[in-house]
Amino acid sequence: MIPLSAPEVGAREQALVAEALAAGDVAMGPQVAAFETAFAALTGRAHALAVSSGTAALHLALRLLDLKPGEAVICPTLTFMGGVAPVIYQGATPVFADVDPVTWGLDPACLPEAFDVAGARGLSVRAVVPADLYGQCCDIGPILDIAADRGVPVILDSAEAVGATLNGRHAGAGALMAAYSFNGNKIITTGGGGMLVSDDAALMERARYLSTAARRPAVHYEHDEVGYNYRLGAVAAAIGLAQLETLEARVARRRAVFESYRAALSDLPGVRFAPEGPGRLHSRWLSVMLLGPDARVTPDALRLALHAEGIESRPVWKPMHLQPVFQDAPRVGGAVAESLFAHGLCLPSSTTLTEADQARIIAIIRGELT
Ligand SMILES: *Cc1c(COP(=O)(O)O)cnc(C)c1O
């Protein structure tokens, strides 16, 4: 089976893991702080906290805002569940807004209505949580402006956008806090893990405390509130350190994979590829193809044809407002997310995808679409 997005690990990961194990650094060790320092440098932030997942990073961020039931968070409807579940963990209500047709991120034009719809339901909006989808930065500038006008912070879900930039700044820049994922299918992985970053020292100190079971400094572990077990282990951090060293090459490789698909398939009727917005370096974490009504087959028929050949492909994220669990959640905006879900197909995008395998995938797609 050719997977959608496989982890790539090599000799450097093995060496750093072996070093960690030889030193007895299994759960705790200097690798964790080193990984945090390196990631803070990459993202241009004062502070970084390594955690067990991207979802955990976002959850900590929302907990830091003291988000409560009866309060709302504005989220893009086109995203992965990990970007929304933390809102529910805090007992709050997500308000889903449509996305921009170029960046596929939260459409700033939908924000005023999202605030109004929340207000009409008696919900006070406490945060905006946009996402940088498939490796591309959202339109963070206008989102920050509108949120600031309303007096609410922006927490950026950059889980899919490690290595991506907007106007030369790494994904996540500008937001009060940003979250990243090192899940096995992302561009760099720790097997499972995440990172929370911010420039606010007090917030990050509290995040670190909450991520380690909220223990007050007493030998008997004094607790006056309840926290989480969200810390990342040293072995995972060792893998992350090795992965970070090759991030630039990984972005270049994923972009080359995307360009090969685009060059080989764009002439086919009804075929388009995910755009790259102005000022952006799209990491092309996943190569996404769009099949319009004049394409020979539907995205699902193409997916099944690829599956029959042992090739994994997947639809674009199903919009959250269409998910059964969120059928009653407030939503605003048009149908951009629904259209991307209907027409999109994510193609194998691994850094380890061989030229021969990609040529075979392209030949199968051409066969189906000609
Ligand atoms: C992967 C992902 C997450 C969650 O990250 P995990 O590390 O899997 O918990 C959150 N949001 C988006 C958009 C993601 O793709």
Automatic annotation (TrEMBL):
Keyword match Transferase: yes
Keywords: Aminotransferase, Pyridoxal phosphate, Transferase
Record-listed N6-(pyridoxal phosphate)lysine modification sites: K186
GO molecular function: pyridoxal phosphate binding; transaminase activity
Pfam families: DegT_DnrJ_EryC1
Example GO biological process: polysaccharide biosynthetic process
Family per record: Belongs to the DegT/DnrJ/EryC1 family.
Protein name per the record: 4-keto-6-deoxy-N-Acetyl-D-hexosaminyl-(Lipid carrier) aminotransferase
Species classification: Bacteria, Pseudomonadati, Pseudomonadota, Alphaproteobacteria, Caulobacterales
